[in-house]
Design brief:
The protein has helices spanning about 10-15, 15-20, 25-40, 45-50, 60-70, 75-90, 165-170, 175-190, 210-215, 255-260, 325-335, 340-350, 360-385, 405-415, 435-445, and strands at about 95-105, 115-120, 130-140, 145, 150, 155-160, 195-200, 220-225, 230, 265-270, 280-295, 295-305, 315-320. The protein has about 450 residues and is α+β, with helices and mostly antiparallel strands. Strand 4 and strand 5 form a beta hairpin.
Length: about 450
């Protein structure tokens, strides 16, 4: 039996997900969640047990089985997490999401799904760096967080996209990034059938097949090549007209040609939060077209963006909603830049890339769980931070808005203080049980 008693506040927080587990598995899950939040180092099972004072427990393999053997459905939990995030941060209006991939740098012969990929963090336009690891595709809600003063990217559905070598050695069909994205986006559309869904992505997902497959269920906004083949819609077929139906109309000028064409009509706008800046003056032009390649096509609205200061290269966006307002398209797209912040935060504060599971099932569950924990911490801290909580500052550092480290600190404080409830709150001195003092001392003195 597990000798750890979960804090009542943790039971309340996790109540929307409790029915997804059996009672024994739920006890193990609560231990791992509490340990993952409280431990300051690696997010391993042993580190989670150590911070909770369970280093001497004989049934420690019970907690490993939660990840590598016990039966529970990650997709079901992802759907519940999405509904909780939407209810907390987007109760009305369009639901804006972002999809992107990240590389978890992992080595080891027993990690079969790893591959060699371009490292997006260390690479640049003129410098290509390869790394060995696992490739994850993450779908995130990107709402504005009132108490943070900016948009946060909150992961809720993350899947492993194995390498082509792994698929070949396993006798499976290799799935492209766009194949994984199509399945994930259609799943989200089934979870939120009554809401308008906007998904922003980079150019990796600007594929005609993907856009055509999902455009009737949700709206996708991505970058677009300046030399994309754009056409007018096919003319209406006349009664009695012979021959094969036209698949496209006359070809339109490329977006690169529109940039230099004096006849292009530009609209000046000021956009906030452009790459973290307060305001940015831009000129935009927009229109509709049929993005066509032989055998495949999709109708789009294109938005051409030019920096009035000349500091940023011109770029183009596409939107699968032909009636979308160009300024809204640009406003939605800039929310995507918070995705990289989340990837950095989960590595810095939640120990992604420090876990040490080797089995395929445990690997496929652990990283999505840590990314989902980022979102859970944000929701759990919302009830405190939204009440006017001030971030911790110093004489040499002033912070105007809470960051994720503050949200994590608030949740940690809630869990730690649950162990002090046996002491009277009206006294200056607080009595700490010996076992709890030992746990705090070990957390402060010993590396995990």
């Amino acid at each position: 039996m597990i000798s750890f008693a979960p804090a009542p506040v943790l039971l309340r927080w996790f109540a929307p997900f409790a029915s997804a587990f059996t009672a024994p598995t739920l006890r193990g899950v609560l231990v791992l969640i509490a340990g993952a939040i409280l431990t300051p180092g690696r997010r391993t099972v042993t580190a989670a047990l150590s911070i909770l004072g369970l280093r001497e427990i004989a049934t420690f393999t019970t907690f490993h089985r939660v990840l590598n053997r016990n039966r529970w459905a990650p997709r079901d939990l992802a759907g519940r997490l999405l509904h909780q995030l939407v209810g907390a941060f987007v109760p009305a209006g369009p639901v804006v999401m972002a999809i992107d991939e990240t590389i978890e740098r992992r080595w080891g012969a027993r990690i079969r799904a790893r591959g060699i990929y371009r490292d997006p963090v260390r690479s640049s336009h003129g410098h290509f760096v390869k790394t060995s690891g696992l490739r994850w595709i993450s779908l995130m809600l990107v709402p504005p967080i009132p108490w943070a003063g900016r948009v946060w990217a909150l992961p809720f559905l993350t899947v492993l996209a194995p390498s082509e070598r792994y698929a070949r050695e396993s006798g499976q069909r290799h799935k492209l990034l766009t194949d994984w994205a199509r399945q994930m986006l259609l799943q989200v559309a089934r979870w939120l059938p009554e809401r308008q869904i906007i998904v922003v992505a980079d150019m990796s997902y600007a594929a005609i097949e993907l856009l055509a497959a999902v455009r009737r269920h949700l709206t996708v906004i991505t970058r677009l090549r300046l030399d994309a083949r754009l056409f007018d819609p096919p003319p209406v077929r006349q009664p009695g007209q012979r021959g094969r139906p036209r698949v496209s109309g006359p070809r339109q000028p490329t977006l690169a040609q529109r940039l230099t064409n004096p006849a292009t009509r530009w609209r000046r706008v000021t956009l906030s939060h452009w790459y973290g800046e307060q305001d940015r003056g831009l000129a935009i032009a927009s229109g509709t077209a049929l993005w066509y390649h032989p055998g495949k096509s999709v109708p789009i609205r294109w938005v051409l963006v030019r920096d009035l200061a000349g500091e940023v290269e011109p770029q183009a966006l596409l939107c699968t909603d032909l009636a979308a307002d160009p300024v809204e398209v640009l406003t939605w797209f800039v929310r995507r830049w918070s995705v990289e912040v989340t990837f950095a935060e989960v590595r810095r504060h939640l120990g992604v890339e420090t876990q040490r599971q080797w089995s395929d099932r445990a690997i496929a569950r652990t990283t999505p769980a840590l990314l989902g924990l980022f979102s859970l911490v944000t929701v759990w801290a919302d009830e405190v931070l939204n009440a006017g909580w001030k971030p911790r500052c110093a004489a040499w550092y002033v912070k105007s808005h809470p960051t994720f480290s503050d949200a994590l600190a608030v949740v940690r404080a809630k869990l730690w203080r649950a162990s002090f409830e046996m002491s009277r709150q009206d006294r200056e001195q607080v009595k700490i049980p010996r076992a709890l003092l030992d746990r705090l001392t070990e957390a402060a003195c010993f590396p995990t």
